[in-house]
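2024-03-11 09:14:02 DEBUG pipeline.ingest accepted 1 chain
2024-03-11 09:14:02 DEBUG pipeline.ingest length=672
2024-03-11 09:14:03 DEBUG pipeline.predict start
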Amino acid sequence: MTTHRTPTYRTPTRRTLKALARLAGVALLAAPLIAGPVHAASPTGFPVTRYAIPTPSSTPTDLVKGPDGALWFTEANGNKIGRLTAGGQFTEYPLPSSANSEPQNITVGPDGALWFTENNTNKIGRITTAGQIAEYPIPTPFSNLQGITVGPDGNLWFVESGADQIGVISPSGQVLHEFPASNNADPNNPPNPDGITTGPDGNLWFTEDGGNRIGRLTPSGQLAEYPVPTANSGPATITTGLDGNLWFTEADANQVQSIAPDGTFGAVVKLATGSPVGLTVGPDGALWVAEQGSQGSAATAGAIARIVPNGAGSYGPAVAEYAVGNPGGQPTVPVFGADHTLWFTEFRGNSIDHLNTMAGSFRQTTLGGGPRALVQGSDGNVWVTEAYANKVARFSLATGRLTEYSLPTAGSNPYSIARGPDGALWVAEANAAKVARITITGTVTEYSLPTAGSLPEGIAAGPDGALWVTEHQGNKIARITTAGHISEYPIPTSRSKPGGIVAGPDGALWFVETYANKIARITTAGHVSEYPIPTSYSAPLTIVSGPDGALWFTEFAGGQIGRVTTAGQFTEYPLPTTNSSPLGLTVGSDHNLWFTEAAGNQVGRLTTAGQVTEYPVPMIGAGLSGIVGGTDGNLWFAEQNANTLGTLVIASASSPAPSPAGANHNGRATRH
């Protein structure tokens, strides 16, 4: 968990009204209580839902995704720890020791509990997901506790802003150390450490709001400090980016900046709305920033900013900023929930808001019926087979226009499609026992396979300039030249039911044997080798050549993605969703494996290292089938039951995006 600086202890220009009102002996006025969730559209096009916290004037201060999948947050003025489900149900847990303990930051501990700082009672609190609370006093009085994070040593590290210290507490509740947070203490300009995180170098990194520095503390207590180049910048939240650097918000300078583990300051990304405070890395790999906006009589709505990786090993300068929240509501802490979408606190708005970054651009183009397999054509468009309508359709990525071409043989059941070496599209017509050739202008030619009732299923372009086809019922592999000359090669295992086929990196063709539970290899001379899959009855369906030089395949019944080297060595990766029935498979523009889950109703992402992310598709029971990468860099998939094409946008500077079962890099789904 990356902790951040809250507005409670900001400089007077941004100090929360709660602190000022307490000094004056009056209560903070809350935003009007919202009765139930309020839905609105943000300028992102993403739906925004605002959930009013049951306790008025509770001042939500920090937010984290809990181990139970719910959102957990601190209520500084409400003296409670809150829990919010993805469905909008609140539970609040009053703190036991004081009516005004003022809980601040919160994180998930190594023990699966939530740990938080209590500013007024000078304690560290722990709450289980069942709501059991324990509190542990800190030795230094009036330490003004703020940020908290899990350290590299498995302990909890926390910030003592008032005492200018960094403390350590074990999961058993024993305070182990309190280290000075600055070598440059100035009584007239105290360091006031605030946000804290564990860096990629195994050290603790923190911001100094008053000292305008970034601090680095080793687990043994060795301290280094680095002055921020911009004067009086108000460094607040700090976290580790995907580039291996630390990134922090500068609330008073309206910018985000990086610092390398060696202490070298890097890129600066300017923001327009103002007062960036909270910061997190999204499942799309981007930096997501909460900007509080202007306060007072000229209060403006805050914003959520998205800063994308720039392809040069860093972030920016491309930024998308989206106005969200109520004027004066102060979006403060952004967090991605278990649903892979963005949630954030409105500090003064007294709400937890949901920005549905997975569903904002869903559009729909109705096809003739039963879209199944997809391929990127030589014309740069997406081509799709329509099994029920007996057509092949071309979807223009430039215009969004759909053009459909009927196949001459009625009821042919176009099953799979491939781009041929001649620039045409080649289709396996399962029920007709034919292979069709379609030019990009729509001229269709059909070729009958020699074996009647062979049920051709998979098709792929081979390294020899021919098309190779699996005969599911014929138990053969067919080779057809672009001139229509056909040869057939029998498969050694009887009734193997071959399915998907692909050209491998070794100059051979690789295909799945669904019933035989094998992966097979056929040379261009027709020699077949077979390799049994370790998991019995896995029902392999689709196979692709991966970016790592191996072959990857879906195990429909096994609920896994399999990998086999050209030497026949297997690795299998179970999917987080049980009985998900993975079906389609492709390699994305990000060089990861992307797949559809027919039963799980999700699109998944698998890195070659085995990290899985799943993205639920909004259309219930969509009947996900084929998937392919488009020339636009995004993923296109077939929703067979819904008769639609879907798109999952892989993060880019022009397309605001989420994982992660795992965490996610990349992805929001859209439908056409």
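2024-03-11 09:14:41 DEBUG pipeline.report Residues 249 and 394 are 46 Å apart (CA to CA).
2024-03-11 09:14:41 DEBUG pipeline.predict end
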